[in-house]
Amino acid sequence: MAKNLAEKKKHLRQIHDLLYQVYGDCVCPLVHDSAFQLLAAVMLSAQCRDDRVNQVTEVLFAVA
């Protein structure tokens, strides 16, 4: 386990590099203009597909 800040940063960089090797550049498929909209979209995405969430949030956030 990392003991100091420099070791923690090094450990986090190693994790980041490993995830990048496995997944590459990831782009969020959920359309959003703010952190709140992304949070709502993520909650909805647990219930249905991302393309459907984007359809619903487009209408939902246009009204708000």
Question: What's the layout of helices and strands?
Answer:
Layout: H1 5-23, H2 35-45, H3 50-63
Helix pairs in contact: 2-3
Please give a structural write-up.
This protein is mainly alpha-helical. 69% of the residues lie in helices and 0% in strands. It is built from 3 helices and no strands. It has helices spanning 5-23, 35-45, 50-63. The protein is elongated and about 50 Å long. The model has no long low-confidence stretch (mean pLDDT 90).
Element-by-element helix/strand order:
HHH
Helicity level: 55-70%
Helix segment tally? 3
Main beta sheet: none
Distance between the amino and carboxyl termini: 46 Å
Instruction: Classify the secondary structure makeup into a structural class.
Output: mainly alpha
Radius of gyration (Å): 17 Å
Q: What's the assembly state of these chains?
A: single chain
The low-confidence runs, each spanning 5 or more residues with pLDDT under 50, are none
- Overall shape: elongated
Mean of pLDDT: 90
| Strand proportion | under 5%
Write out key terms for the chains shown.
3 helices; elongated
